[in-house]
Amino acid sequence: MRFRFPPGGQDRSRLTRMPRPGLVIAVLAFAGMGASFMQTILLPIQSELPVLLGVSRDVTAWVITVTLLVAAICTPISGRLGDMYGKKTVALALLGLLALGSVVAALAPSVVLLIVGRGLQGMGMGVVPLGISILRDVLHRDRLGSGIALVSATLGVGGALGLPISAYVTERYDWHVVFWVAAGIGLLALVLVAWVVPVSTLRTGGRLDVVGVIGLAIGLTGVLLAVSRGNDWGWGSPRTLGLLLGGAVVLLVWGWYELRIQEPLVDLRVTARGTVLFTNLASIAMGFALFASNVVFPQLLELPTAAGGLGLTLMQASLILMPSGLVMLAMSPVAGRLAHRFGAKPLLASGAAVIAVSYVIAVVVELDVWHVLVVNIVVGVGIGLGFAAMPALIMQVVPSHETGAANGLNTLMRSLGTTSAAAVVGGVLAAGGAQYQGVPVPSDDAFRTALLLGLLASVVCTVLALLIPRPKPHVDEHPSLPDGVL
Hints:
InterPro entries: MFS (IPR011701), MFS_dom (IPR020846), MFS_trans_sf (IPR036259). The chain is mainly alpha-helical and 486 residues long.
């Protein structure tokens, strides 16, 4: 341990007791991966849940959906709370709720309590944007780029690495054990963050915008619920359309309200700046491109060969998909150096272009197992580059006291992309029209259409990245960001 001033100087934070920077980055990355792991923890047994829980498929869908909904809603809110009351404090609270939710889910005697536990697990996702903001407060700018890249990449890494872990556990033990594993991860992350991560005194104070919190929660719930359940309810059903249009109207009113109060939950004027706006729009497209492959490849790998698939077991398919997450991890230090040298905007555009190339290969080539392995690794390279660039772009133009809320909103945009991809691509595959032993399965044309959607999203992301204007931040407002990050 040693004593030092954080990079912004004494006006940003008082004297802070700092461990090694690499240890801070590693701990925050571990916490982020643990939180994102909760998104895929039940995917290996998703189809078996109706039998395991003794309820209908429509009910068990909430076990998956509630985690995504709560994560999307709580992420920007927790970012704002971190700006106000301390990012480490809020991160510890979220990790505590994640661990509590895992225990509740492990002991749940009914599906209702299981859904409650899964909702608490979803709250942990806010640790990722908070971790990025903590790095800005406490790291020297020479280490900031690679640190941001690693923590930001955990949004994809956790799911990629978590899938084989959860598959292994559920194949060999009672399915409740996976929640005890999740509880252990959450508690370990909680202890490490409490012990290693320093406290930043950079806080805004003020009052929480309770009306803004309620409005955002209601609006996002309507929109995300319609998107995530549209395939089951029917896209033209009154329930789906009512939630979608109602949520959109609430969000418009919420935006009008946020522009007229002194201490908003989200400063939409900052969000409307060209750099932030185009980066967030690109985040939606990249999230869609990422999750399109996450939906297509597992089904293609696990579908029997007689039905046009590749005939792998769940564990085999998970191991084929896992290297993508390892590549995201490996790309983090590279992405940090590239952003420092060439700028974050070219990095984001390059990452999106790499993903587009991978989808072109997937569409043109008749996919075999090793093709899927290579294509998914290339997707991981693109995601590693793009996810590293997004927070760096945003923090160039966002005041230092709003980084938590701004990064939380960007994480929400990525979640909107992944949720939309799950619904749209899942719908395309479900409507494929093929049959195998009397069961509907995706056809070759359905797989190709889904991959084309991923290609379209990555091309849109590339174009949006190229349209990002070069910001002109005030030097005193962003003293901790690396030189030449744009």
